[in-house]
Amino acid sequence: MFLNVLAQTSENTNQGGFDLTSLLLPVLLGLFIIMMFRKQKKTQKTVQEQRTQMVPGTEVMTQFGLFGTIVSVDQEENKAVLELSPGNTATIHLQALTKVVTTTPVEEETETVVPDDASSLTGETPRTETADAARDDAAAQEETAEETLERLNRENKKDN
């Protein structure tokens, strides 16, 4: 089947006609090469930026997940000495250093108090559950059953 399609396109080109499909392969190949070089250039740029940041005292991560602080860098031999813990050092290849670790300061989160009713909108002081419970306990000890029923009816009418 492919040979039939190829034979038909070659017949058209022999007649002197211009065939767009003959341009498709070189254009795609050129696009692929351009994209490949762009990606390689970006990668080299990021590696160069990381290398400039890798000076003694910088905290880094290696390809195999070790975190440490750079003690010294030997560019000629492509080696770096990392301090993994106080007094514990390791010599590694510079290409094994993959990431410069930056610590961001943690902001203290202030706990916001959100009232469970609309008292903040009306200007009333918010009622807390403990104050409500204490008031209800004191009222329950002093009132009779009839008074309790009347109070609950009044509260029910306020809510509706």
Automatic annotation (TrEMBL):
Q: Which domain of life is it from?
A: Bacteria
Might you report a single GO cellular component term?
A: plasma membrane
Residues forming coiled coils: none
Q: Name one Pfam family in it.
A: YajC
Give me the segments passing through the membrane.
20-37
Q: In which broad location class does this protein mainly occur, judging by the first location in its UniProt entry?
A: membrane
Q: Which protein is depicted?
A: Preprotein translocase subunit YajC
Give the originating organism.
Arthrobacter caoxuetaonis
